[in-house]
UniProtKB/TrEMBL annotation:
GO terms for molecular function: calmodulin binding; cAMP binding; cGMP binding. PANTHER family: CYCLIC NUCLEOTIDE-GATED ION CHANNEL 10-RELATED, CYCLIC NUCLEOTIDE-GATED ION CHANNEL 15-RELATED-RELATED. It comes from the Eukaryota. Its main location: membrane. It holds the Pfam family Ion_trans. It is found in: Cell membrane. It comes from Eruca vesicaria subsp. sativa (Garden rocket). The keyword Cell membrane applies. InterPro entries: cNMP-bd_dom (IPR000595), cNMP-bd_dom_sf (IPR018490), Ion_trans_dom (IPR005821), RmlC-like_jellyroll (IPR014710). This is Cyclic nucleotide-binding domain-containing protein. The chain crosses the membrane at residues 86-107, 119-141, 175-197, 247-268, 370-392. Keywords: Calmodulin-binding, cAMP, cAMP-binding, Cell membrane, cGMP, cGMP-binding, Ion channel, Ion transport, Ligand-gated ion channel, Membrane, Nucleotide-binding, Transmembrane, Transmembrane helix, Transport. GO terms for biological process: monoatomic ion transmembrane transport. PROSITE patterns: CNMP_BINDING_3 (PS50042).
């Protein structure tokens, strides 16, 4: 029992992953005994509860680790790329919402005091909270987004780190602090929580705190947008899918800056008027209580003296240095915008002021000696210069991308005209070249399809070719009976070609270099049977037809020469034709790789739909019909000759001479001569040469 107990303990330690102790070498007998005890202890171990409990814990741990890996987001995945674009637009909207808090202070023009726009406080706080939800979601995603280990990039693309702990450490050491500073609800706290619970005048603390709070969060939000924009352009290549969308994106940033400067202009205008009131109170001999300058503390006092103490005079019209100079804020005070309760009226007027001066680079701003006002005007000038340069440059880039193909086409036409003039080509050739270039441009819009497909992976290129060509090939009876694998191989080798009206795709007597499968248009396939006088055969080809089938016989022949077969037909485009071409070498390669082409069913299908075989079959039937007609005519003439001979014999026996006998003799001679001529010229016109038959008898190896 002791030995059995030791074995159970040893096997238990081994099963739970503890280190195995090195056993000394023993004899084969002792080894057999040990294995016997281990087999016996297996049954006992199955009843041990701690073992099953630990195993269950291991399985739960394994399942939980697998679930954690499933929750990790791939940074190169489409989900994160789309989310980054959404969050980028949400961040820009957040930058546009924060300046709305600047419109909360309002000047009461009748009582000359400051008050707050209560409904705007609630609306701005709700919008700000809604946009902050995107920041919260983004922070959660950042804790679940894998990253590429910098050390692994040395050996290639890099290895993704999916450990949640490592991801959290990396995020906490990078943009976590900036994201937290961006999401802090400081404006909401100031407006909804701090201001109602202070002893100072509400309007005063609101005006003083709003600008500091908004700018304290504006900086981290702007700092967060740039790396996010870089990440979107790095992974997706573009922010918007269209050029007009990119131009609108850059224009929206310019509009955002105009909105921000307009809101600042409004708030500083209110602050400058408040500053003028304070100075007027200080200069007043009997003095005044500053609390009465704020409407929440001023319920009955009317500060009429402030009307004469703070006149809204243009800076150029000020002659007395004691008059308060409002500088660039005079327009806001004289227009009454700071006194209006209509938010949209204030918003659009201030937005127009910001857009106008930002576009003019602040050249029309006539400032006072106030340092803050001068700094504000300088910031408008610098920001306008930078943003205008970026706007023009980016919009030019985006808009040029829409016309780059047209410019390439114009340059190509100019080069073609110069080349044709240099080579002194005749006018008919010039017209054909111009017509082809114009038709190619209409069909492709300057996109080189072959170069585009060549740069794609093989499986993706195959699927695209299947989408383009598979339905067309299945309309061709020759390929309708082929399997999908063979059709995939044929689709991969097809190349698009264009033919203008009256152009020749194949000429009789020239080597056949490709098979054509017609997608659109109409062609005529004609033959003169090698130029024989009086022979002409023509058929019309339309969509889903094919030509150049001489190549199929050549490709299926294992002993075929390296020279291409000679065409027996001329194929001419009657309209603009769009087709797919299968080159001779590609067809040879497909035929050599897929021996299923060698089948009797394919042979019959090929014969039935081949223009050459149809022409030869029609000529063969015509020749057989002519032979049949000649035989019937010869048979009838022979019978007529025998009948006339019998009549002549009867007349001779009667030994009667009459005029009818002469007519009978003439008719008999005519029949004899006609029969003789028929027998002498009993030769049929030459048939077209029978097309060479492909070797379909090759067996599969």
């Amino acid at each position: 029992m002791g030995l059995g107990h030791d074995n159970r303990v040893r096997s238990k330690e081994t099963e739970f992953g503890y280190g195995r102790k090195a056993r000394p070498s023993i004899t084969s007998v002792l080894d057999n005994v040990r294995r016997g005890f281990e087999k016996g202890s297996d049954k006992i171990r199955s009843f041990k509860k701690p073992m099953s409990f630990n195993s269950h814990k291991k399985e739960e741990k394994r399942n939980s680790s697998g679930t954690q890996k499933k929750n990790i987001i791939n940074p190169q995945g489409s989900f994160l790329q789309n989310w980054n674009k959404i969050f980028l637009f949400a961040s820009v909207i957040a930058l546009a919402i924060d300046p709305l808090f600047f419109y909360i202070p309002i000047v009461d023009g009748e009582r000359h005091c400051l008050k707050l726009h209560s409904s705007l406080e609630i609306a701005a706080s709700v919008l700000r909270t809604f946009v902050d939800a995107f920041y919260i979601i983004h922070i959660v995603f950042q804790f679940r987004t894998a990253y590429v280990s910098p050390l692994s990039r040395v050996f290639g693309r890099g290895e993704l780190v999916e450990d949640p702990k490592a991801i959290a450490i990396k995020y906490l050491s990078s943009y976590f602090i900036i994201d937290v500073l961006s999401i802090l609800p400081l404006p909401q706290l100031v407006v909804l929580a701090v201001i109602p619970n202070v002893n100072k005048p509400v309007s005063l603390i609101t005006k003083d705190y709003l600008m500091a709070v908004i700018f304290s969060q504006y900086i981290p939000r702007i700092l967060r947008i740039y790396p996010l924009y870089s990440e979107v352009t790095r992974t997706s290549g573009i922010v918007t899918e269209t050029a007009w969308g990119g131009a609108a994106w850059n224009l929206s940033l310019y509009m955002l800056a105009s909105h921000v400067f307009g809101a600042l202009w409004y708030l500083i205008s209110v602050e400058r008027e408040d500053r003028c009131w304070r100075e007027a109170c200080e200069k007043r001999p009997e003095g005044c209580d500053f609390r009465f300058l704020y409407c929440d503390e001023n319920s009955s006092v009317v500060n009429d003296y402030l009307t004469t103490s703070c006149p809204f005079t243009n800076p150029d019209d000020i002659t007395n240095s004691t008059v308060f100079n409002f500088g660039i804020f005079t327009d806001a005070l004289k227009s009454g915008i700071v006194e209006s309760d209509d938010f949209w009226k204030k918003f659009f007027y201030c937005f127009w002021w910001g857009l106008r001066n930002l576009s003019a680079l602040g050249q029309n701003l006539n400032t006072s000696k106030f340092v803050g006002e001068i700094i504000f005007a300088v910031s408008i000038c610098i920001s306008g210069l930078v943003l205008f340069a970026l706007l023009i440059g980016n919009m030019q880039k985006y808009l040029e991308s829409t016309t780059v193909r047209e410019e390439e086409m114009r340059v190509r036409k100019r080069d073609a005209e110069q080349w044709m003039a240099h080579r002194m080509l005749p006018e008919d050739l010039r017209k054909r070249i111009r017509k082809y270039e114009q038709y190619k441009w209409q069909e492709t819009r300057g996109v080189e399809e072959e170069n585009l497909l060549r740069n794609l992976p093989k499986d993706l290129r195959r699927d695209i070719k299947r989408h383009f060509c598979l339905d067309l090939l299945k309309k061709v009876p020759l390929f309708e009976i082929m399997d999908e694998q063979l059709l995939d191989a044929v689709c991969d080798k097809l190349k698009p070609v264009l033919y203008t009206e009256n152009s020749y795709a194949i000429r009789e007597g020239d080597p056949v270099e490709e098979m054509l499968f017609v997608m659109r248009g109409k062609l005529m396939s004609a033959t003169t049977n090698g130029g024989r006088t009086g022979f002409f055969n023509a058929v019309y080809l339309k969509a889903s037809d094919f030509c150049g089938e001489d190549l199929l016989t050549w490709a299926l022949d294992p002993q075929a020469s390296s020279h291409y077969p000679i065409s027996t037909r001329t194929v001419q485009a009657l309209t603009e034709v769009e087709a797919f071409a299968l080159a001779a070498e590609d067809l040879k390669l497909v035929a050599s790789q897929f021996r299923r082409l060698h089948s009797k069913q394919l042979q019959h299908t090929f014969r039935f739909y081949s223009v050459q075989w149809r022409t030869w079959g029609a000529s063969f039937i015509q020749a057989a019909w002519r032979r049949h007609c000649r035989r019937r005519l010869a048979r009838s003439l022979t019978e007529e000759e025998d009948r006339f001979r019998n009549a002549v014999a009867k007349r001779e026996r009667r030994a009667a001479s009459s005029s009818s006998l002469v007519a009978t003799l003439y008719a008999s001679r005519f029949a004899s001569n006609a029969l003789r001529n028929l027998r002498q010229h009993n030769t049929l016109p030459l048939l077209p040469p029978k097309p060479s038959e492909p070797d379909f008898s090759v067996d599969d190896d």
